[in-house]
Specification:
The protein is mainly alpha-helical and 126 residues long. The chain is 55% helix and 6% strand. It is built from three helices and two strands; from the N terminus they run ββααα. It has a two-stranded antiparallel sheet with strand order 1-2. The longest helix has 46 residues.
């Protein structure tokens, strides 16, 4: 061996992208890179900006569009809460009316029963 030559480096077996194997110097190989991380939110639908585009195209300012984007969902929430409250109040009114009718029928005197019979007869003869 010639002393002027550098010491031979050990070679390693490498698989090429086409699937074949070859010998290569490990120091000449590129460093392995971490795979690129892709963040994709599958469970989120992309925002629908059709209304905003139409509003901006018709001359409405960006502040008005931003207010609509902000207050639109709030308005839907408020209207839903109001509708739920009205539904509960209607249910309570129906239950209370039923309770009053039931109590009046059970406690009522013979005069009340006669009055209810005359009312029911009047309804039939219409």
């Amino acid at each position: 061996m010639d002393p002027n030559l550098p010491a031979p480096r050990p070679l390693t077996v490498v698989q090429l992208p086409d699937g074949t194997y070859t010998y290569a110097d490990p120091h000449s190989l590129p460093a392995p890179q971490a795979p690129q991380q892709i963040v994709q939110h599958i469970h989120h639908a992309p925002p629908d900006r059709t209304v905003q585009r139409l509003a901006l195209g018709s001359g409405v300012g960006a502040g008005t569009v931003a207010a609509g984007v902000y207050f639109g969902p709030l308005l839907v929430g408020v209207l839903t809460a109001i509708a739920a409250n009205l539904a509960i109040l209607a249910l309570l009114a129906a239950v209370m009316a039923w309770a009053v009718v039931t109590v009046v029928k059970s406690v009522g005197s013979s005069e009340g029963k006669a009055a209810s019979k005359s009312v029911s007869r009047a309804r039939r003869h219409r």
